[in-house]
Write a structure and sequence with these properties.
Strand order of the largest sheet: 2-1-3
Oligomer: single chain
Structural class: mainly beta
Order of helices and strands: EEE
Helix content: under 10%
Number of helices: 0
Number of strands: 3
Shape: rod-shaped
Length: 68
């Protein structure tokens, strides 16, 4: 099942997280509608249509975020 990878930076001076972006991780399954390996056309399509688990990566910086 395809899933998302979220990237954050934690500002240790203030404790806030800043969202940096996200990516889709392809599961390469023919039974997943989101996957690049899903056949087209697929009629009637009963394949999975939702992302699975979410992975989060956190980097650290010793500065304040832009909120303050």
């Amino acid at each position: 099942m395809c899933h998302r990878l979220l990237r954050f930076v934690r500002h240790t001076a203030c404790g806030h997280n800043s969202f940096q972006g996200d990516s889709v991780i392809d599961c390469r399954s023919r039974e997943c509608k989101i996957s690049s390996h899903h056949p087209s056309p697929c009629n009637p399509c009963t394949c999975r249509r939702y992302y699975g688990y979410v992975l989060a990566t956190v980097g650290y910086t010793f500065t304040y975020c832009h909120v303050l």
